[in-house]
Write a structure and sequence with these properties.
CATH topology of the largest domain: Diaminopimelate Epimerase, Chain A, domain 1
GO molecular function, one term: isomerase activity
Protein name: Acetylornithine aminotransferase
Largest sheet: 19 strands, mixed
Strand content: 35-45%
InterPro entries: PrpF-like
Number of domains: 2
Order of helices and strands: EEHEEEHHEEEEEEEHHEEEEEHHEEEE
Helix content: 10-25%
CATH architecture of the largest domain: Roll
CATH superfamily of the largest domain: Diaminopimelate Epimerase, Chain A, domain 1
CATH class of the largest domain: Alpha Beta
Keywords: Isomerase
Distance between the termini: 6 Å
Family: Belongs to the PrpF family.
């Protein structure tokens, strides 16, 4: 049976997804078992699709275009909105709620204003959000015009055509999203095995758990296009083994086989060098502090996940992490609150405040736009 559910299609940063008011969805039981939601979300996005295109749904066949956000007015003191992020698998009938999405976090307030979940007078406002996935707060700053989030602006976001109004994301107290802390194992760098080989990695959790590995260690330059990396079966196999073993080390699961799909993500990094971008231009080495290729849901991201960018900014300031070493060697004195990441789509700048041996906040600017409002067809 086909059902029609109120939904909104939103671009947030370099991702797109379906946004729902929680009141439009079936109520969850006391244990908040999401099975009833999962069936609706996978149907709406067109999963599972063995062809990898999600043609029979709203998804786009890649992880950054197969996402769900559920939003509700918050009953928590000092919080405006609660939101839950769901990463919908393309090839399986599964939804992973183990992490947050920084890109779509920028779309929560524009959606809520459009849907009437909150209201605000015109002008710049900072809204406080609570992310249920990580049990963390997120502050979102944006300008309201005629009761809606401003769209027009001069901010250029690598990977998104045109320009848009800035949306500022600030994650207070980002350390230990689903793990025990900023450095889940207590080490800035450590050795971990995958495929019978030993790798030195940094395991960092600031807004998102990330495994940081030098490209050379897995046979990559670290500046390849996403398509080149995805086609490298050996490297992708090593990355996935490394990710699963790191998930156990970070306390996210008991065995590699039980590793969540969403976290940890893997950041392949290298020293600055000229980088060919997806639009055909070349980014000079001195225009960025660190080339990065982020692996998400078994695919190389065409830009960088927002939470991933903030985690890398935090890692850059932690003494003796792999990123900290690279930046200090290549650009002496360059380590600071902001780090310029050379992604396949261009430079993304993220910030982190490091104080008293911990990261007290991370930040990132995104743009967002409500693309369509209406109803989406789902089958039970």
């Amino acid at each position: 049976m086909t059902r029609w559910i109120d939904a909104t299609f939103v671009r947030g940063g370099t991702s797109k997804g379906l946004f729902f008011s929680e009141s439009a969805l079936p109520s969850l039981n006391a244990d908040r078992d999401t099975a009833v939601w999962d069936r609706l979300f996978t149907s709406a996005m067109g999963s599972p699709d063995p062809f990898g295109r999600q043609l029979d749904g709203m998804g786009g066949g890649v992880s950054s275009l197969s996402k769900i956000v559920v939003v509700a007015a918050s009953a928590r003191d000092g919080v405006d909105l609660d939101y839950t992020f769901g990463q919908v698998s393309v090839t399986e009938a599964a939804v992973d709620y183990s992490g947050n999405c920084g890109n779509l976090s920028s779309g929560v307030v524009p959606f809520a204003l459009s849907a009437g979940l909150i209201s605000a007078a015109d002008g710049w406002h900072v809204f406080r959000l609570f992310n249920t996935n990580t049990q963390k707060l997120v502050d979102v700053g944006l300008r309201v015009v005629d009761g809606q989030a401003e769209v027009a602006g001069d901010l250029v976001l690598p990977g998104v055509s045109g320009t848009g109004a800035p949306v500022e994301l600030i994650y207070p107290d980002p350390a230990g999203s689903p793990t025990v802390g900023l450095l889940p194992t207590g080490k800035a760098a450590e050795s971990i095995t995958a495929g019978g080989a030993m790798f030195e990695v940094s395991l960092v959790d600031a807004t998102l758990p990330v495994v940081i590995v030098p490209g050379a260690a897995i046979g990559l330059k670290g500046t390849e296009s996403p398509e080149e990396i995805d086609a490298n079966v050996h490297a992708m196999g090593m990355i996935e083994q490394l990710r699963r073993n790191a998930a156990v080390r970070m306390g996210l699961c008991e065995s590699p086989e039980e590793a969540p799909d969403v976290v940890p993500k893997v950041a392949v990094v290298t020293a600055p060098e000229p980088t060919r971008l997806l639009d055909g231009t070349t980014l000079a080495a001195e225009e960025a502090d660190l080339p990065v290729r982020m692996i998400s849901m078994g695919q190389t991201h065409k830009a960088v996940p927002g939470t991933g960018a903030m985690c890398l900014a935090a890692a850059a300031q932690i003494p003796d992490t792999i990123i900290n070493r690279i930046i200090r060697r290549s650009r002496p004195g360059a380590v600071g609150p902001d780090v310029r990441l050379a992604t396949p789509s261009g430079v993304v700048t993220a910030g982190a405040v490091f104080d008293a041996d911990t990261v007290t906040a991370t930040s990132l600017f995104r743009t967002a736009r409500v693309l369509m409002r209406g109803q989406v067809a789902v089958t039970d």
